[in-house]
Design goal:
Length: 168
């Protein structure tokens, strides 16, 4: 082979090598760029997912807080209702006792004329007052217990709803 052919072959080899090297370099650069792009995409997706989970958790906390506040308002309302019912029964009892006290006074004045009739009327008035008092106390006790049970049940339902909301 002459020198010229060797030089042509060498040049062609170098060009082929350079061309292959450039192709491989472009392929490597493109692969790195794609990997970086995929990494950024994955990071963005993960960050968006984390933000969504955080937002949902915050929303759940707010709903739970609202449910707790509503439960407290319901308990307060039931307590007020129970107190008002107890007060109403107390007033009823007081008015009944007042009525019987007036009846006793009138009976006492009438008793001056007839001791035996007055003694019998007094004894009957006392029995009626005692029975009415017992009935009023029983009714007030039942109303108080029902109010407390209703308040407790409402509180449990509110707490259960809050737990269910939190679990979602």
């Amino acid at each position: 082979m002459d020198e010229n052919q060797k030089q042509n072959i060498t040049q062609a080899s170098e060009q082929l090598t350079d061309s292959a090297q450039q192709s491989f370099q472009m392929l490597a650069d493109r692969t790195v760029a794609l990997q970086e792009s995929n990494l950024k995409l994955t990071q963005n997706l993960f960050q968006n997912w984390i933000e969504q989970v955080h937002n949902q958790a915050q929303g759940t906390r707010e709903v739970t807080q609202n449910l707790q506040e509503q439960g407290q308002r319901q308990r307060d309302a039931f307590e007020t209702l129970s107190q008002e019912a107890t007060n109403a029964y107390s007033e009823f009892l007081n008015s009944a006792l007042s009525f019987y006290q007036e009846a006793m006074s009138t009976a006492s004045q009438m008793a001056q004329g007839n001791m035996q009739n007055a003694a019998q009327a007094t004894q009957q008035g006392m029995q009626a007052a005692s029975q009415a008092g017992q009935q009023a106390v029983q009714a007030a006790t039942q109303a108080g217990q029902q109010g407390a049970q209703a308040a407790e049940q409402a509180g449990q339902e509110s707490a259960s709803a809050a737990r269910n909301q939190t679990n979602r």
